[in-house]
Design brief:
alpha+beta, Beta-Lactamase, five-stranded antiparallel β-sheet, 8 helices, 13% strand, disordered N terminus
């Protein structure tokens, strides 16, 4: 059976008590929604603080999940949602492993964070995923180099639901204003690039969903 995160739903998103910061976030949300590319603001747990309409369009076709929706916690979505591979191309190598590396770094910095510990518990509950995290991840970082872990500037494949984009790439740009940084938030934007591969048909997407609805480091679904 495909691995499913058993953790609790993310706690309500923390909001700054400072009215000035609250007003800034409201205005920043309006600014974010004017950006034509998928963009989101996350905290150190990858809880999504803000996202824009382009982000919601990109992931609008994924099915429901109790703990791993893209607009709730993007890390959980990448690792645990069975539909993640239908939007995030080369799901394991281009998205999961870099996110696991950032998660490991967050655990080192915020080891007592309850939500991070919950995600860690969900990882270690599956022996194969735990092996990937404890042993496979360090090997992968040594093989590809530390630069491959970084989000900013990375070019990663996407399967966009809009046929005008289809199978394409995005360059991830991390650009965090001072106020967001002081609040402990990070902004990431996926700059869509012109399609370079044939667009997948709905039939091909359905086949891909059945074929790779789970990580290779996770047991395949039972027949």
């Amino acid at each position: 059976m495909a691995y499913q995160a058993g953790g609790q739903r993310s706690a309500p998103r923390p909001r700054p008590e400072n009215p000035t910061a609250e007003a800034y976030l409201r205005d920043y949300a309006a600014f974010l929604d004017a950006v034509p590319f998928p963009s989101l603001v996350v905290d150190h747990r990858w809880d999504v603080v803000l996202d824009n309409s382009a982000f919601r369009t990109l992931f609008g076709g994924v099915g429901p999940h109790p703990t791993a929706m893209p607009g709730d916690n993007f890390l959980r979505f990448v690792l645990f949602h069975p539909d993640a591979c239908t939007v995030l191309g080369e799901h394991e190598s281009s998205w999961c492993l870099p996110m696991l590396a950032h998660f490991a770094a967050a655990v080192e910095r915020h080891g007592h964070d309850v939500q991070l510990q919950t995600i860690l518990r969900d990882i270690v509950q599956d022996p194969i995923m735990e092996a990937a995290y404890r042993q496979g991840l360090p090997h992968w970082i040594r093989a590809v180099g530390a630069a491959a872990v970084e989000h900013d500037g990375a070019v990663r494949p996407l399967l966009h639901p809009d046929p005008r984009w289809g199978a394409t790439d995005c360059r991830i740009v991390c650009e965090t204003p001072r106020v967001l940084e002081e609040l402990g938030y990070t902004r990431l934007t996926m700059i869509l690039r012109e399609p370079r591969r044939p667009t997948h048909t709905p039939h091909q997407r359905a086949r891909a969903r059945r074929a790779v609805s789970h990580l290779r480091v996770v047991p395949a679904p039972e027949a």
